[in-house]
Amino acid sequence: MNHLAGIPLWIALPVAVLVVTGSSLALLGTIGLVRLRSFYDRLHAPTLGTSWGVGAILLASMLLFSWLESRPVLHEALLGILVIVTTPATYLFLGRAALHRDRAENAPDVPKAAADDKAQD
Amino acid sequence: MIRLVPHPILSLMLLGMWLLLTRFSLGHLVLGTAIALVAGWAMGELHPARVHIRRWTPILRLGVVVPSDILRSNLAVAGLILTNGRRGTRRPGFVRIPLELRDPTGLAILSIIITATPGTAWIEHDRESGILILHIFDLIDESAQRDEIRRRYEAPLIEIFQ
């Protein structure tokens, strides 16, 4: 890791803070995924990892490699955009599947269909 | 012009992506432009709904508001997971929001914002009535939650697309 030894503190510090923040958020998200009880609650926990969890780590990577290569390294932004743009597809499927199952089983506390609703307010 | 570049935004974004993935050089600028144009024509053959951006300034505003809101909800949800839902007092719930936004692109972007925000999950949307059902991780005030989504995200998206 010789090439990392020459990094000045003012780069190393924000990079370290961003990496630790991002990975902590991702870790908390996975802990939530294990500990939360209902399926709908569990939908929320991993979004910690897919939003600022991945965002902070990518920012750290952009900062570090821009300094190491003495040019702006921005292609991490693409990873961020692709993660942000593609996650709703899976979440929508999961959410709708859960809703469909709960309605079929007549589970309590399930909202009635959006289609048969005359605006309540 | 429209025949030559049928999807200018798509083509520009593809060119930007090409330049990000390769090192910037004149050669890659030319190659990237060619690829972006061909992709634009291919997309034109599929006849997708044309995206009309009516106003640009709300895009900038959303670009600031959304990441900071997402950061705040990240911290809030992380705190709730750490404190075991404020020692068991957290109350999750569903919220119905009647939307006025009808533009498919605008709705897609709204779904991205809501999904990327921890604490709110997009559960169901009915195209005819415009009713959206969200699941809220920590539902404190239902009508405040409804107003926030409509004011902060729906209103600028309506400005941009409708």
- Compute the number of helices of chain B: 6
Task: Using a beta-carbon cutoff below 8 angstroms, give the protein chain pair with the largest interface and the number of residues from each chain.
Answer: A-B, 43 and 40 residues
Q: Which residue ranges of chain B are poorly predicted, with pLDDT under 50 across at least 5 consecutive positions? A: none
Task: Please report the distance between the alpha carbons of the first and last residues of chain A.
Answer: 61 Å
Shape of chain B: elongated
Which runs of chain A of at least 5 residues are low in confidence (pLDDT < 50)?
Answer: none
Annotation, overall tally of beta strands of chain B: 3
Please state the average pLDDT score of chain A: 86
**Based on CA inertia axes, which overall geometry of chain A fits?**
elongated
The overall pLDDT average of chain B reads: 88
Q: Approximately how much beta-strand content do the residues of chain B carry?
A: 5-15%
Radius of gyration of chain A, CA atoms, in whole angstroms? 20 Å
Element pattern of chain A in H and E: HHHHH
* Order of helix and strand elements from N to C terminus of chain B: HHHHEHEEH
Count of alpha/pi helices of chain A: 5
Q: Given the helix and strand composition of chain A, which structural class is it?
A: mainly alpha
Number of domains of chain B: 2
Largest sheet of chain B: 3 strands, antiparallel
Kindly estimate the percentage of residues of chain A that lie in beta strands according to DSSP.
under 5%
Oligomer: heterodimer
What does this structure look like?
The complex is a heterodimer of chains A (121) and B (162). Chain A has 121 residues and is an all-alpha fold. Chain A has one domain (11-104). Chain A is built from five helices and no strands. In chain A, helix 2 (9-35) runs antiparallel to helix 4 (47-68) and helix 4 packs antiparallel against helix 5 (76-104). The longest helix of chain A has 29 residues, at 76-104. Chain A is elongated, with a radius of gyration of 20 Å. The model of chain A has no long low-confidence stretch (mean pLDDT 86). With 162 residues, chain B is mainly alpha-helical. In chain B, a hairpin with a 5-residue loop joins strand 2 and strand 3. Chain B folds into two domains: 8-45, no CATH class; 57-161, no CATH class. Chain B has a three-stranded antiparallel sheet, with helices on one face. The A-B interface holds A 24-25, 28-29, 31-32, 35-36, 38, 40-41, 43-45, 47-48, 50-53, 55, 74-75, 77-78, 84-85, 87-88, 91-92, 95-96, 99, 109, 111, 113-115, 117, 119-121 and B 17, 20-21, 67, 70-71, 74, 77-78, 81-82, 84, 92, 94, 96, 98, 108, 111-112, 115-126, 128-129, 131-133, 135, 137, 143, 146.
